[in-house]
Amino acid sequence: MSKRRSSAVSGLSAWVDAVRHDRRATIGACIVAFFILLAVFGPFIAADPYELVGMPLQPPSGEHWLGTTGQGQDVLAQLVVGTRSSLLIGFSVGITVVFVGALIGVTAGYLGGRVDAVLSLLFNVFLVIPGLPLAIVIAAYLPSGPLTIGFVLVIAGWAWNARVLRAQTLAHRNRDFVAAAIVAGEPSWRIVISEILPNMTSLLVSQVIGGTVYAIGAQVGLEFLGLGDVSAVTWGTNLYWAQNDSALLTGAWWTFAPTGLCVALVGFGLTMLNSGFDEITNPRLRLERAWRAYLRARGHRPGHSTPVVAGESAGSALVTGDDHA
Amino acid sequence: MFVRYLLKRIGFYLLAAWVALTLNFFLPRLMPGDPATALFARFRGMLGPEALEALRETFGLTDAPLIIQYFTYLGHVLQGDLGISVAYYPSPVLEVISGGLFWTILLAGTAVIMSFIIGSLIGVAAAWWRFGRIDTIMPPLSALLGAFPYFWLAMVALYIFGFQLGWFPLGHAYGDGVTPGLNVAFIADVVRHAFLPVGTVVIATIGGWLLTMRNTMVSVLGMDYVNLARAKGLSPTRVALRYAARNALLPSVTGFGMALGFVLGGSLLTEIVFSYPGQGYLLVQAVRSQDYALMQGIFLIITFAVLGANFLVDLIQLWLDPRIREATS
Question: Which residues pair with A74 in a beta bridge?
């Protein structure tokens, strides 16, 4: 038992190390940390986002750093206060999507046979049905609010994770340590939880991050359409009101530009963080980095045929997960 | 003998279409309260009792048992009867949708194909000149651009190039001054109107293709046959494109079908920003006026379109990858 705990600690420090040694991951971690702090403490510091503080559509000034909205509210206050709900929904959906995906994907991959056939069919169908229209149709029937948004985003988003995790489980299932556990008479659920899942930790973490990026973007999209609670203050509803007040055609760039920048920054930060974690998932990348450093120290340029397997980074949502199957 | 493979794929798409249809049928019925009231609340005062009764019939919302209602609904959909739109009363939903379908397919289709071609080419270049300038700048840059919501990029593009600089029109698919038809003025006007919407979707989606292509290309470039081609003294362009890129293309093509639905979602939102008269614009009208029939109709038609496009991708893959042909024979 103590051995397992120590391996967990060294596992954690491996993550911290990976972030510190990769410049992109460090930048990503800083951006994400900044927005998490903003989400936690921002609403206590910022002014009341609902209060009508001045004339509508005032450009940025010393008094209102990011100007005022079409209703005369402070844009900066709305931006800061909106961070909390946007990030909260983003991370919860990111975690839930991976949880559901793991439940179905790992079950399919581990049990195989008919169960696998049925579950695979299920996630393949959900993968091919366009997500945004599906989410819109379901959300329109439910009472508008953060719970509805979270729910429809999970429905529209879990299938991708299930597919990748099934492929990974299939790859692990034929390894010797799983065979040993089966021979030792361990029950299936225990093999899955203590043998297979721990070996996929890095993949799960990278999926949670990828899922969060998806959730934040899709949530903003749904709320922009007016499917969220339009009286709440979130990044998506900020953009909804900007569009509704025809901010564009009056030239009021400050009502929509900062919100989109924040959405993009969070997404970018998370993606960069993920690329640092890639090195843990893929030891070959680490070896390759060492090899490159060695070559450079001797004044050579790395050639074309460095044997590296494609690293599946979070940004490349298009890479198929079947490579390992 | 790849007929079995094709039949399997067709069966799968039929199943997916059936799932979408069934979802559509059960959604109004799963919600609290009487589904008919929710569906037709907006019609009150617009329709007489007989017309309402006919509408109920279309959705199978009768007092008959659920299973009969279900088959009534399926029957109506198969006949192309998707109900009547509230937002565009009294037009039938199918008519409203087909009016915008061309523009959506034009916008999303052009965007996804251009993004695929440009992204893959940059990916090839990044992998070929590995650690070079393209390889160090483009992947993070495209990741940054991909992090922006499509529709926000659209707003910025519209603001800068449409509103401030006045280079492009501020919305719609074509101007008032041209007559629709196959004439040069009209087509030029359509291209001018589509430039910004297509451009923003391409910029936002290029990163996925770029990274996929770059990563596969890097591993393909390490293969023996590429080294052999190089050793034979073939020209670099030939090695890069005919030997490496051609084989590295497969994972991208596989991902193409799946990306379609995703890109379409973003392009729907982009349409709204540009008041482009496609499905996205109709969708937002439907959401704002609680036009459930139109919303569900759009969902169905878009799903069917994506399924059809996926089948096309399957055909292309069959042609590209001999392994599929052989495995199924």
Answer: A68
Residue in chain A lying closest to B164 (CA):
A251
Report for A138-142, A209-213, A240-244: range of highest mean pLDDT: A209-213
The band of A19, judged by pLDDT with boundaries at 50, 70 and 90, is confident
Nearest to A97 by CA among A164, A35, A145: A164
Cβ proximity of B205 and B146 under 8 Å: yes
Residue of A137, A214, A227, A313 to mutate for B, most B C-beta atoms under 10 A: A137
| Average pLDDT value for chain A | 80
Task: Tell me whether residues B264 and A220 touch, CB distance under 8 A.
Answer: no
Can you tell me which residue has the tokens 């990026």?
A213
Query: Which pLDDT score is estimated for B258?
Result: 76
Contact A221, A235 (CB under 8 A): no
Q: What is the average per-residue pLDDT within A45-69? A: 76
| Cβ neighbours, 10 Å, residue B210 | 32
Cis peptide preceding B251, ω within 30 of 0: no
Arithmetic mean of pLDDT, B121-144: 83
Buried b / exposed e across B1-26, counting CB within 10 Å, b at 16+?
eeeebeeebeebbeebbebbbebbbe
Can you give the pTM of this predicted structure?
0.81
Kindly list the distances between the CA atom of residue B208 and the CA atoms of A13, A109, A210, A315, B147, in Å, as whole numbers in the listed order. 31, 26, 13, 6, 11
